Structure formats: structure tokens, C-alpha cells
């Protein structure tokens, strides 16, 4: 057993039972070890959850970085969509990620910010747009993952349309981008 095995099994457990049911006791049983042996790898459950969150973000964290030839608007949309897809890959992915602090990918974050500013987006606007898009995405996925969905017997109240989560996400993302484009245009005039 090693740290990576513990994280992988913890993520599999998350997918099976959901975040509320993940416990070190359950994980130890799954790994066929005594619970205290997990503390060799993670001092607290919070440390384990942070490692799980980081590992769950691997598909987004290894996506290609922008190149100088990229259009910043297209990249901004693609980057945010990649984040959403990654959160949706895991049961309770948004809840697992919420409140986590990026630690291993600070260089990537700086490179993304440098790309936006080199593309003409003022630094403060780039920071706030990335923060807004990230929080909007987590919130959107949180709502989507909490939605029991069709076939569960719960129908929306009369007069309230069913939510198409992807369309709602895309509409909100477009509003964020359009606001940023407007701010960049204001600064240039």
C-alpha cells in the first residue's frame, strides 16, 4: 500500500457511496488494513480529502496550457468547460473540490493569468474573471450533482420548467465572458 493507492481507493469509495459516507473506517476496511495505518499517509481526514480533491482535478490540471496564438476568449471558455467536465467526473466532485486550495498547480495558474494579461486583459479583471468563473462552475456543478434528475419521482412544481444544466451553465459562462469582454473594451477606449 502507498499514498497513491489510498487516494485511488478513496476516490472509488467516493464514487460508490458519496462524500457523506466516506470515512477512514470504511476506507481502511476497503483496503483491508487497520484504520490507524491510514494515518501513516494522512494525519487527518481533512488531509485525505485535500489529496482526493487534488487527484480528482488531474484531468483539468493536466489539460494543455494556452499558447500565445490562442484567442483568449475561446481559451477562457474551454478552460472553464474543462473544469466543469472534471468536477462532473466524480460523484460529489463539486463538494469535494469546494473550499480546497490549489497547491500543486500554482505555476499553471500563473501561466494562465500571464496569458490573459498578455492578451490585453487587465490583471485585476483577469483575476476576478477566473475567480468568478471558477466559483460559478463549482456552484453550477454542485446544483447539478444535487439534482435527483428525471425518473426519481420528483417533478418540478407546476409552471417551473425542468433545468437543463448544461444550457444553464453555458448561458452563465457566456454572461461572465461578455462582461469581461466589455471591461476589456472599456479599458481600450
From TrEMBL:
Residues 143-162 are annotated as: Disordered. Residues 147-162 have a biased composition (Low complexity). It comes from Streptomyces kunmingensis. This is TetR/AcrR family transcriptional regulator C-terminal domain-containing protein. Transmembrane segments: none annotated. Residues 1-60 form the HTH tetR-type domain. Keywords: DNA-binding, Repressor, Transcription, Transcription regulation. SUPFAM superfamilies: Homeodomain-like, Tetracyclin repressor-like, C-terminal domain. Residues 23-42 bind DNA. Pfam families: TetR_C_1, TetR_N.
Amino acid at each position: 500500500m502507498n499514498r497513491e493507492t489510498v487516494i485511488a481507493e478513496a476516490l472509488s469509495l467516493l464514487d460508490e457511496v458519496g462524500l457523506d459516507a466516506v470515512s477512514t473506517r470504511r476506507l481502511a476496511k476497503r483496503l483491508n488494513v487497520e484504520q490507524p495505518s491510514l494515518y501513516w499517509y494522512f494525519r487527518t481526514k481533512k488531509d485525505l480529502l485535500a489529496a482526493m480533491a487534488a487527484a480528482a482535478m488531474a484531468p483539468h490540471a493536466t489539460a494543455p496550457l494556452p499558447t500565445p496564438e490562442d484567442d483568449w476568449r475561446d481559451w477562457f471558455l474551454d478552460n472553464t468547460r474543462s473544469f466543469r467536465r472534471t468536477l462532473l467526473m466524480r460523484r460529489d466532485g463539486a463538494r469535494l473540490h469546494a473550499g480546497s486550495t490549489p497547491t500543486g498547480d500554482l505555476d499553471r495558474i500563473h501561466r494562465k493569468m500571464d496569458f490573459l494579461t498578455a492578451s490585453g486583459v487587465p490583471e485585476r479583471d483577469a483575476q476576478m474573471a477566473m475567480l468568478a468563473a471558477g466559483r460559478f462552475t463549482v456552484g453550477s456543478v454542485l446544483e447539478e450533482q444535487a439534482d435527483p434528475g428525471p425518473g426519481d419521482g420528483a417533478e418540478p412544481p407546476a409552471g417551473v420548467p425542468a433545468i437543463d444544466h448544461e444550457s444553464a451553465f453555458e448561458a452563465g459562462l457566456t454572461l461572465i465572458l461578455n462582461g469581461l469582454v466589455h471591461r476589456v473594451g472599456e479599458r481600450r477606449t
